């Protein structure tokens, strides 16, 4: 796998584990689907393959969304926020995005 473009890599502000949070959004509706984490390799894989790839903090490995569940995310675009500390990954989601089987990870009720 080729390395991340140095110009893009220099714009990113990573946490102590080398990760950047990635907000995942349905590209055509704007629906927020989930939050995941990316390092440079996951970002490069997502850009290169068009399949959303993340770093699993619990399993300590890369995972391609939908590889086992079939609920794939096809990357339409990836944006970097103004501080370089968050990514916005716009995808075409197949099936539910959440591991619980719901469309979005943010449908568990309002806070407050």
TrEMBL record:
Q: Which cofactor does it need?
A: Zn(2+); Mg(2+)
Q: Which GO terms describe its cellular component?
A: cytoplasm
**Domain of life according to the entry:** Bacteria
Q: Where in the cell is it found?
A: Cytoplasm
List residues binding Zn(2+). Answer: 82, 98, 105
Keywords on record: Amino-acid biosynthesis, Cytoplasm, Histidine biosynthesis, Hydrolase, Magnesium, Metal-binding, Zinc
Cross-referenced Gene3D superfamilies, in alphabetical order?
Phosphoribosyl-AMP cyclohydrolase
E.C. numbers: 3.5.4.19
Q: Which reaction does it catalyse?
A: 1-(5-phospho-beta-D-ribosyl)-5'-AMP + H2O = 1-(5-phospho-beta-D-ribosyl)-5-[(5-phospho-beta-D-ribosylamino)methylideneamino]imidazole-4-carboxamide; 1-(5-phospho-beta-D-ribosyl)-ATP + H2O = 1-(5-phospho-beta-D-ribosyl)-5'-AMP + diphosphate + H(+)
Q: How does it assemble?
A: Homodimer.
* HAMAP family, per the entry: HisI (MF_01021)
- UniProt-recorded name of the protein: Phosphoribosyl-AMP cyclohydrolase
Give the lineage. Answer: Bacteria, Bacillati, Actinomycetota, Actinomycetes, Propionibacteriales
Gene name as annotated: hisI
């Amino acid at each position: 796998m080729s390395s991340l473009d140095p110009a893009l890599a220099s714009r990113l502000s990573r946490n102590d584990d080398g990760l950047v949070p990635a907000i995942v959004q349905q590209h055509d509706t704007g629906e927020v689907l989930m939050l995941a984490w990316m390092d440079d390799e996951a970002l490069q894989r997502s850009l290169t393959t068009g399949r959303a790839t993340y770093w699993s903090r619990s399993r300590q490995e890369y995972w391609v969304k939908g590889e086992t569940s079939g609920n794939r995310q096809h990357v339409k675009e990836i944006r970097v926020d103004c501080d370089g500390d968050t990514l916005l990954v716009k995808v075409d989601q197949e099936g539910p995005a959440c591991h619980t089987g719901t469309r979005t990870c943010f449908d568990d009720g309002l806070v407050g």
